[in-house]
Amino acid sequence: MVRTAIVKKTKMANIQKSSRKSVFVELKEFDLFAKKDDYIEVTEWTNGEGFDVEICGVMNQRFQMTYGAYKALKKLVKTIENNN
């Protein structure tokens, strides 16, 4: 018995190279509990719809956020600050 493999041809993905905007700051001047090498870095997504955040400090954290979610977060924090 002869078996024939059926090969499905797929189009190769269009690979794009890009440069992304990124900003960095040491936390020491903003956070009383920060150590010497603690920092925050924010990198905008290539599609411009949001950003990645990396916080290296007492509690290392990484998260992603769209600009819409960021706008809502700013509004909520401002509400808390205005109620104090």
Keywords:
alpha+beta; extended; 1 helix; single chain; 19% helix; 84 residues; 4 strands; 4-stranded antiparallel sheet
Q: Can you tell me about this structure?
A:
The chain has 84 residues and is an alpha+beta fold. It contains 1 helix and 4 strands, in the order ββββα. The chain has a 4-stranded antiparallel sheet. The protein is extended. 0% of the residues are buried.
Structural class: alpha+beta
Helical region count?
1
- Determine Rg (CA atoms, Å): 22 Å
Strands ordered across the widest β-sheet: 1-2-3-4
Low-confidence stretches: none
DSSP E strands, number: 4
Order of helices and strands: EEEEH
- Residue share in helix: 10-25%
The CA-CA distance between the termini, in Å, is 81 Å
Largest sheet: 4 strands, antiparallel
- Strand content is 25-35%
pLDDT averaged over residues:
89
| Global shape | extended
Short account of what is shown:
The protein is α+β, with helices and mostly antiparallel strands. 19% of the residues lie in helices and 29% in strands.
Strand and helix map with partners:
Elements: E1 22-26, E2 39-44, E3 50-56, E4 61-66, H1 67-82
Antiparallel strand pairs: 1-2, 2-3, 3-4
